[in-house]
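Running log. JK asked me to keep both predictions on one page so they can be read side by side. First protein, sequence followed by its tokens:
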Amino acid sequence: PMEDLDNLVNGWLKYAADMGSRWARVRHNGYRDLTSDTECYACVNPAHAWERIKRILTFQYDTGYAPRTFIDGIIKDNNFADNTVWLASAVGTIIKELGNKELLFEEVPFNNGTVATVYEHIRRSVDFLFNFQGLYGLIKIWGGDWNDCVNYAGLKGKGVSVWLSIAWCYANKRFRELAKMLGKDEDVKLSEERGKIMAERIEEYGRDKEAGYYIYARTDDDIVMGSHECDEGQIFLISQLWSVFAGLENAAEAMDKAEEILETPIGIRLAYPAYSYQRSYIGSMAEKEPGVQDNGGIYLHPSAWKLAVDSMLHRPDRVEEGIKKMLPANHEYGETCGEPYAMYNSYFAPETGYRMGTPGQSWRTASSSWMLKSMVEYVFGMHAEMEGLRIEPCLPLSWKECSIKKVFRGCTYNVSFTGNGEGSDVLSVKVNGELIDGNIVPAKEGETLTVEVSLGKK
């Protein structure tokens, strides 16, 4: 029912994901940018995404670590810790889209010329980060993590990123899926043991128990970032979001707290309160004006993650609100601006004055790719599984009728949804007029399936 959203998904988002998958972010080839954008691109072109992810793997070190960037084929490594954490999810997503676990045995070189299977590349990426431990056995932040503007916190090699430790738990979970596919029982067992260890460390040393949410980082000198006891930067959104992806035990509470503190009329902040002066342990984040981009701005890449997270938590009201706040031409909650066909990296937050609601930068952003993935895979519920397409949406309750067409393993699915406005749970699924058990629809190559989904509250 939202024409602007239709135009965005069917036009700009697919184009931007394709571009980002091979050319992120214009001035250089960011390793994690390429990896994540390729994962998102897989929902529309998984075969192409597979060829691209194999190219990306060729720049990985044989230790499992991955560089920050490369330009003209030459590696430029800025000591960022998170680059390799994105690989397991990207490869796992593409494998499920294609439905072919044998692809994991394809051999791909590392950047020194030695060769290993794709599976081995992923195993080493997970191993590397688990052993890249700093304070309290959490994962080092080093020269930065996803928030690459926190680039002073771990330069001595002791500081840790709680967010990255949480993200590792998710990557480890995705790796475990691959290991199970191939019958790698020892890897599955080790993954389960390590996952439990890291989750316990996060709960003990990475959670602000009094405030009810996860902290962001601990610096080389064990200064906590993202706690209610900080004068500024008391909470960071990304730790709360990824606690849901990782399946941590206090994730739902953490998200409730994040919304309570970080939500604004034009979207959810990345952090709050914004930093108003520099500290020796922060970095370029604190050199930006309060409310600008990652310094407390409305960062749309995490906003797109939040659409996925709200879908996982079955919160259709928050999904609808999040979509409307992200769209530049929708002013139901607050005034934003920008080209209506594009997606931005951020909107400037209320404290920026006349710049409030204006874009931080235009198309050179992962916001586009992740909004595509979040809309297709999570909001519309087109979840690729080895058994078929699992349909588990979290659609806004006001959308009484909507539809999506997805080509999956050579099969065209024309999926229509009908809701009664009471809930977004799947009540029934019909395929070519026949009621089926459950919500997984196997692909039939070369055929077109008419899928009717009835939604409500169970």
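And the second, directly underneath as requested:
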Amino acid sequence: MTAVNTTLREARTEAGLSQDELARRAGVSRQAYGAVESGRAVPSTELALRLAKALRTTVEALFSL
């Protein structure tokens, strides 16, 4: 399986959001969000889109192979 690189932590802190707040805005639990941010889980397409929308950016800016 290919690793997915993420800039979520940087984007979240730049936006001044806690993990709880970003998770709430994306409609996911803080635990699920934390797993994606730490690289322990790969987000679904829907979750990646929700996170990008909540951070006002693109999926491509948040995730790469």
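Observation for JK regarding the second prediction: The mean pLDDT is 95.
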